[in-house]
Design brief:
The protein has one domain: Rossmann fold. Helices cover 31% and strands 9% of the residues. It has 3 helices and 4 strands. It has a two-stranded parallel sheet with strand order 1-2. The chain has a two-stranded parallel sheet with strand order 3-4. The protein starts with a strand and ends in a 23-residue tail after the last helix.
Length: 109
């Protein structure tokens, strides 16, 4: 677990290593990526913000994570953009939109 601030483990004795570092610090990201099986990159600013903050975290930060993974030889990297999880969709009556399942009718979803 890597965050800009220290993150305590949920339970005493958990086997979770926590690292506090800035997402744009290539050396810190490379050290964090050493010896891992995969990197799951979830860091970012999910809401509208100052352009410099977005540029630093979302754009430079993502580049830095991927470059660190490449340099460390991490075999896999997964990116998940927050906008796909929290915005850019409408809230409706709870039905699954057809575009999520092309070729299927609502009764088959």
């Amino acid at each position: 677990m890597l965050d800009i601030v220290p993150v305590p483990c949920e339970q005493p004795g958990e086997r979770v290593e926590t690292i506090a570092a800035d997402i744009s610090d290539l050396d810190a990201m490379r050290q964090a990526a050493q010896g891992v099986d995969a990197i799951v990159h979830l860091g970012g600013i999910p809401e509208e913000s100052d352009w410099q903050r977005i540029l630093h975290t979302n754009i430079h930060g993502t580049y830095t994570v991927l470059e660190a993974a490449r340099r460390a030889g991490a075999p896999r990297a997964v990116l998940a953009a927050s906008n796909h999880a929290v915005i850019f969709h409408t809230y409706s009556d709870g039905l699954v939109p057809d575009y999520l399942f092309p070729g299927r009718t609502p009764s088959t979803v």
